[in-house]
C-alpha cells in the first residue's frame, strides 16, 4: 500500500512538473518580491496619512475620523499587508542559516527585511504617533532599493 501511494505521488509530481519543496533561492526571491511590493503599498499608506494630516489641519477636520474613513476604503490592502507580513516573518525564519553559497544573498535579504519592517511599522503606527517626514520615508525607500538591487545581483550569480 505504501509503495502504491509513493509511486502515485512520484507519478503526479513527474507529470505536473512540480517539486514538493522549492529550493532556497526560489523562496528567497519570492520573499524579496513580497518585501518590495508590500513596502511600496505601505509607502502609499504613509503618504496618504500625511496628506490626511495636512488636510485635517487646514480644513479643521478630525484626523482620526479621516484615517478611519480611508482605512475602511483600503481595508483589502491593509489586510493583504498584514497577511503578507506574517508570511514574510515565517519565510525569514525558514531562510535563516543558509548554506554558505547563499549567505551574501541572505544578508542582503535581511537588509531589505529590516527596512521593510520599518516602513510597515510606519504604515500601521497608531493614530497620534508622529508621522514620518517625507525625507525619512524617501531614505528608507532608497535603502530598500539598494539592498534589493544587491540581492538581485547576488542571486543572479548563484544557482
Overview of the molecule:
It is a single chain. The protein is elongated and about 55 Å long. The protein has one domain. It contains six helices and no strands. Helix 2 (24-59) runs antiparallel to helix 6 (134-157), helix 4 (75-95) packs antiparallel against helix 5 (103-123) and helix 5 (103-123) packs antiparallel against helix 6. The chain has 159 residues and is mostly helical.
Report the C-alpha radius of gyration, rounded.
Answer: 21 Å
Shape field: elongated
Query: What number is the mean pLDDT?
Result: 84
Task: Give a quick account of the main beta sheet: strands, pairing sense, barrel closure.
Answer: none
* Measured distance between first and last alpha carbons: 38 Å
Order of helices and strands: HHHHHH
Strand content bin: under 5%
Number of domains: 1
Unreliable stretches, pLDDT < 50, 5 or more residues?
17-21
- Structural class given helices, strands, pairing? mainly alpha
Number of helices: 6
* Percent in helix: over 70%
How many β-strand stretches?
Answer: 0
